Amino acid sequence: NATDLWHVKKVNPQSMVHLTEKPVELAKRAIECGLHVFVEKPLAQTVEQCEDLIALATANGTQLFVGHVFLHSAPVIKLKELVDSGELGDVCYVSSSRLNLGPIRKDVDVLWDLAPHDISIMLHLLGQAPQRVSCSGLAHLNRRLCDVCNLTLHFADNRVGLIHVSWLDPLKRRVMTIVGSKQMAVYDDLGQEKIKIYDKGVETPKEPTNFGEFQFSYRYGGSYSPWLKEFEPLKAECSAFADCIETGATPTTDGRNGAEVVAVLQAAARSLQNGGEATEVAPLSTYSDAGALNG
Asked: Quick one: pLDDT at residue 205?
């Protein structure tokens, strides 16, 4: 029972706690007991709360693991390989849709419910956090909670991430598109072929001498679906947690990773309150994460 954690006098160093409930105080008390903690997304409601957890886990020598399960899935692992290898070229933008008819929650809006998935994937693929976020949304069913949201994440180098989340769509959809200068990739989490890579693009003459020579060249190549190893992401996520406890390695989804996602969510929420105005993403403090345990 998670509420009995603080009564534990001696904790096995391999003990794990999977927290899906709030408040953050419960996670804090677990860490203070010396437990390695697995917290479901989002890590907290504010960046300050995240950083408190990070600092506490570091001080107590425990792992702080965040449940961004898609980062442990075969399609996202493959997408990361495609981006990092340069096979797609320079990433121009990433767009995603996470839609369905419900389930509608009463404790949080659709932004905090669904967007963490796509935010975590985009930050992971691009290897950086956005500088600014714009967010607009509508509340049709509950005036306090948006059920439809659109986000624009503004990254460095003129790259953007576009996210559409909704509880009010007739069709369930989980699709992400990565547009690169060389190739394009589509990730359909509900499709039989999870990833399709398209050899398509638009090119312009390098040094046109006159307006007549300045014509766009469209490339319509073929497409293919790369082989993906089949495994259950949740099982892989739990195995990664166990491995990090055993080895002291820093998790991919560590406290700082969770805090970066929350920073984007906070900025999006402020933008939403201000009519979609572009809002700066708060920088994180310099903390040593609770990943590499040094004894």
From this structure: 65
Assess whether pLDDT exceeds 60 at residue 287.
Answer: no
pTM: 0.89
Helix, strand or coil for residue 6? helix
CB-CB neighbours of 141 under 10 Å: 14
Do 92 and 53 lie in one domain? The reply is: no
Q: What is the pLDDT of residues 230-258, one digit of tens each?
A: 999 999 999 999 999 999 999 999 999 99
Identify the CATH number of the domain in which residue 26 sits: 3.40.50.720
Same domain, 43 and 114: no
Average pLDDT over residues 105-131: 97
Split into its structural domains, the chain has a count of: 2
Q: Quick check: is 261 in a domain?
A: no
Task: Give the position of tokens 């932004």.
Answer: 111
Same domain, 78 and 220: yes
Positions of E strands within 181-256: 184-188, 195-203, 217-224
Range of the domain at 178: 70-224
CA gap 110, 40 in Å, rounded: 16
Closest by CA to 106, choosing from 167, 29, 149, 190, is: 167
